[in-house]
Amino acid sequence: MKNEAAFAAIAGVNPIPAASGNTVRYRLNRRGDRQLNRALNVI
């Protein structure tokens, strides 16, 4: 992986922009490698 952002995207732990108008919000990413995400939570 090239950098930490790429790893986060693959693991599904990066935030997803969910902006509406002038409001800036972020949602949890429910995609990605669920087994890798689980391993990160166990550690």
Automatic annotation (TrEMBL):
Annotated Transposase IS116/IS110/IS902 C-terminal domain residues: 2-40
Source organism of this protein record: Nesterenkonia salmonea
InterPro entries, per the entry: Transposase_20 (IPR003346)
Superkingdom, natural source: Bacteria
One record GO biological process: DNA transposition
Single annotated GO MF: DNA binding
Protein name, per record: IS110 family transposase
